[in-house]
Amino acid sequence: MRIIFVHRTIVDYTVETPYRRAIGGTEAGVSYLSAELAKLGHQVVLLASPSEPGVYSGVECLNHKDVLNQDFLNGADALVVVNEACGRQLRDMGVTKPMVLWTGHADDQPPIEPLEYSRERKAWTGFAFVSQWQLDEYCQTFWLPRERASVKRNAVAPVFLEREPLAEPWFTRGSPPVLAYTSAPYRGLDVLLPAFPAIRAAVPGAVLRVYSGLSTTRGGPEDNQYKDLYDRCLATPGVEYIGPVSQPALADALREAAALAYPSTYAETSCIAALEAMAMGATVLTTGLGALPETLAGFGRMIPPSENPAALARDFAAMSIDALMDMKLNPGKAAFRRETQIAFVRQHYTWASRALEWQSWLSGLTAGK
């Protein structure tokens, strides 16, 4: 099949960018899936905003501003549009080929709002979601036809599968635990930082490493909306602010992590950060918000979400202390859970297996099934 991915973003990336620098989860997922479909023998095109168009890992990466027209798009067997409900616009342009909307957005995001209109919903051949929770939310909000909706989950970046978790975890080495925060700052870092002193007091030597972008301007972390969080990272004993890193560097970092400390205040539709941590053997400590219970699949530890930041910080600290102490006092049980978690994620959350699922689904759509 000739498959064209349409991702009208301002982000400058190709399918090889995630290996070189930090990049968003959407861009990374599109990159990995595109490359895996190309490996299966499909002719894959990614229309995004690369500053250097070309063929990367078997995928033709072009600027959408140059080729987003009727003739080019109708040259595909299937179109996969990322995070943008623009089906009516494309149909009015003259696009006749099967079109799939693939989104990781929550149902309240502006690029998705056109789904309120029946003509927009009818423009799409299929809808791909990253969790059952997200699919259910969309069907309830927008009256999407379930027969055209499918769950196509995220997966772990290939580099995480190439790295082996540490053979001897922290709780058998006798070393203090290292906690990691790898999500966007507004998704729970403001809760984690006030919770961490209590965790460190109960678990002496515990370290928190923050792999989160606290800079949104060229002026650096001290010149943006996250300045307070950045200052708090620097002022809190045991907290090490690292900042965003490439996928290979993050995989290496998570090998040393005892846990992903993520008191989520954001309704995740999937959570690749949790999957990546699980693949490296880290326990996920989080809240039961959004699709996180579905993503964790029984692993990790969760507390109920709360709109009270102080209460959430207190409860998260208590849960984290209990989880870390349980691992330390029961290393055999902890090792078994860790090994089971690693095996589960590495078997069920690979982009190679996702490509096979997409291949089967798109083949059915193009055949009119």
What's the short story on this structure?
This protein is of the alpha/beta class and 369 residues long.
Helix content: 40-55%
Q: CATH superfamily assignment of the largest domain?
A: Glycogen Phosphorylase B
Integer tally of domains: 2
Widest sheet: strand order? 3-4-2-1-5-6-7-8
What's the CATH class label of the largest domain?
A: Alpha Beta
Q: Output the helix-strand order.
A: EHEEEHHEHEHEHEHHEHEHEHEHEHEHHH
Number of strands: 14
What is the CATH architecture descriptor of the largest domain?
A: 3-Layer(aba) Sandwich
Classify the secondary structure makeup into a structural class: alpha/beta
Mean pLDDT: 94
- CATH topology grouping of the largest domain: Rossmann fold
**Major sheet characteristics:** 8 strands, mixed
Count of alpha and pi helical runs: 16
Report on this model:
By secondary structure, the protein is α/β, with parallel strands linked by helices. Helix content is 42%, strand content 16%. It has helices at residues 25-39, 64-67, 70-73, 87-93, 118-122, 132-142, 158-162, 170-173, 189-202, 227-235, 247-255, 272-279, 292-296, 309-329, 331-348, 351-366; strands spanning 2-6, 43-48, 54-56, 59-63, 78-82, 99-103, 126-129, 149-151, 178-181, 207-210, 239-241, 259-262, 283-287, 301-303. Residues 216-222 have low confidence and may be disordered.
Q: How do the strands and helices of this protein lay out in sequence?
A:
Blueprint: E1 2-6, H1 25-39, E2 43-48, E3 54-56, E4 59-63, H2 64-67, H3 70-73, E5 78-82, H4 87-93, E6 99-103, H5 118-122, E7 126-129, H6 132-142, E8 149-151, H7 158-162, H8 170-173, E9 178-181, H9 189-202, E10 207-210, H10 227-235, E11 239-241, H11 247-255, E12 259-262, H12 272-279, E13 283-287, H13 292-296, E14 301-303, H14 309-329, H15 331-348, H16 351-366
Parallel strand pairs: 1-2, 1-5, 2-4, 5-6, 6-7, 7-8, 9-10, 9-12, 10-11, 12-13, 13-14
Antiparallel strand pairs: 3-4
Helix pairs in contact: 1-16, 9-14, 14-15
